[in-house]
Design brief:
2 copies of one chain form a homodimer. By secondary structure, the first copy, chain A, is of the alpha/beta class. Helices cover 36% and strands 19% of the residues of chain A. Chain A has a 5-stranded mixed beta sheet with strand order 1-7-4-2-3, sandwiched between helices. A 5-stranded mixed beta sheet of chain A has the order 8-12-11-9-10, sandwiched between helices.
């Protein structure tokens, strides 16, 4: 990092079907929570970055930057960043650049999505905007279809069974039970997952993150102290359409952003102890752990086997460094996935877990589409 | 500016009803033109910022960052910035911060909008996303309605006649005749404007910028030389809804961004000789000239009277500094207004005009909604 950027405040709404809240209410609740947890007043915020994907369609509302600015008494400059479901990480990256450039000293980043005001047909079609409207949409693909094909190929290549894949959502649901902001605080068994309604073979309903409302916000600062700093912020891109990719079972944008993040943070992979990764579908969690370097290709399931067998989190094998907590918040599956909010919520969960455990390094991994765009942040915790 | 940021390349598509081009084609043509005009290759681009407002609705395509990245062989990191019709200025501001932060050395900024693939009803509704979906949309307002009310109030307050207001579009159309990229290269008389179809009283069809397709792109660099640099980049916000404003006939975000821009560029208003300003509706051009400081409240029309009376541009009065060229490109009315592209196209037109005339300073003024968000850039030209 070119500056010392601290995470000085954060907060979020509950994620779920929040029938009594609009997009503005969601943004306001998260922003208030973030600012009131920080050692500043609202008037110290000198820029706002908004992360949102769908509000034009789901809320008839573009220009969320202006709404965000109106939430604070002094109307600070604001802009919106969109990179599909990875918007949160890209908003954080933009906030870091604003701080590093010296154009701001306290940036409020708000991620928000209000998805339940429209029918499932409309929101599914809107989400398909994250894929290629010329190459993929005309083929009839939706995101469950894209990740279904990815899962098919992965199972073929690595011999992963349907029963094993079901461990992923079972672990995420169990983890979510301890998170009061999570949409699903209910345990499901692997058999529940395998036996849930087919969506896009081999994926079942319980392999898929849900449609959610929610907002999360944080304050990044070069001005105030905090035990948690942003040690790295990196973004990367890949081809939008999976048609143009040499392989389906690995996402090059993750590898690229992760590699640059570790270099920027000057940290070794084995020192990362907390990870929040983008499990929009169960299969993605396995691929992500492999692309991030925590497992060999095909080996991601080992984390979930270990976690399911009596432990509360996915763990590294002995000899590979200390325990690794993966999606201890419940991930996208357990917490819900209000798409623009997810990347910000991941940062909050990594920071909370670092402070709870006293661990030093955590990583948040957020992507858009089938990882056509990817953002990775490394957080460093230095207890005072 | 915290860094020396040069405008090293630029290019655009024609603006208009481009039936044979999709959003990707538009982005590609503008990007190619910008890169090929710069002293770099595509591989030197290390980040892309995309400006777009409507593609989710008009093209079924979010995630334009990934499409932009796919246009270049090495898939550089990319993100999209949205601030309604002011998206272009906000994308440029983000690009400046990326360069100042040291995270990039050559940033490609692409503004694009493809508006004609859907019906006027859909595009009008989508554009209304730039206003307040809770306070303004339920009242039945559209943007012509909002600016119609603003024009009513302005005419009441300053005694502006309908015939005088018609000079604005007449001048912009005449200026556009010299611009091969403009949508309307046809002269209209003030009587044509006054006699055109009523849209939202007192505004007539020829007071309104059109629905357009188009893209514009530029390359900003801290790495390469160019006679044109970005001397200031400032953004500002106001309340989204006009309901929350103390006055309708002046836009505080313009004043705020303009004042900070002049301070950042260390330039006096009288030294600005070229202006591109956001005339989404004729009345806006008058308000903008006043808010930018080039005229007293109610006095903006003088520029257009002078311009219409035999000169090719709006001019300062004697004693107020040298001649001032306003919207010499034709502005939004003459050139067309593909909303995400407009802010980038303004920068290009200011740069071109500075190079043609040998003048030193120019200013681009781009806003979103009824100036709920506003971006101002000052360009400095130093002929070698």
């Amino acid at each position: 990092m070119n500056s010392d950027i601290r995470l000085i405040g954060y907060g979020q709404t509950r994620f779920g079907e929040l029938w009594d809240m609009g997009i503005r209410d969601l943004m306001e609740e998260a922003a208030d929570a973030a600012i009131s947890s920080a050692p500043i007043t609202a008037l110290d915020i000198d820029m706002i970055i908004v992360s949102n994907m769908l509000a034009e369609i789901t809320n008839g509302q573009a220009h969320l930057s202006a709404i965000a600015s109106s939430l604070l008494p002094h109307h600070p400059p604001a802009l919106r960043v969109e990179s599909a479901c990875g918007s949160g990480a890209f908003a954080l990256h933009t906030a870091c650049a604003m701080l590093e450039s010296g154009r701001a000293r306290n940036v409020l980043v708000i991620g928000a999505e209000k998805m339940t005001d429209v029918s499932n047909d409309i929101v599914s079609s809107a989400l398909m905007g994250a894929a290629d409207a010329e190459q993929e949409r005309p083929a009839g693909l939706t995101f469950p279809g894209i990740f279904g094909m990815i899962a098919q190929r992965y199972m073929h290549e690595y011999g992963l069974s349907r029963a094993a894949l079901s461990l992923v959502s079972a672990v995420h649901h169990r983890n979510a039970c301890g998170n009061s902001f999570a949409q699903f605080r209910t345990e499901v068994t692997p058999d529940d997952v395998s036996g849930s309604a087919p969506v896009a073979d081999p994926l079942r309903l319980l392999d898929c993150s849900p449609i959610s409302d929610g907002a999360a916000a944080c304050v990044l600062s070069t001005d105030k102290e905090s035990p948690v700093r942003i040690a790295a912020s990196q973004i990367a891109s890949d081809s939008l359409s999976i048609v143009d990719r040499p392989v389906l079972t690995s996402f090059s944008a993750t590898k690229d952003a992760a590699e640059r993040s570790l270099a920027e943070a000057e940290v070794k992979l084995k020192d990362i102890r907390i990870v929040e990764t983008h499990d929009c579908f169960s299969i993605a969690a396995l691929i992500n752990l492999e692309d991030l370097g925590f497992a060999d290709p095909g080996g991601g399931i080992r984390f979930y086997r270990n976690a399911y067998e009596g432990q509360t989190a996915a763990h590294r094998s002995p000899g590979e460094g200390g325990a690794l907590g993966v999606n201890m918040s419940g991930g996208l599956k357990g917490c819900g996935h209000p798409v623009g909010a997810t990347g910000i919520k991941q940062i909050i969960d990594v920071a909370k877990r670092l402070r709870e455990t006293g661990e030093r390094y955590g990583l948040a991994h957020n992507f858009g589409g089938a990882c056509a765009t990817c953002g990775v942040h490394v957080l460093e915790h230095s207890p005072s």
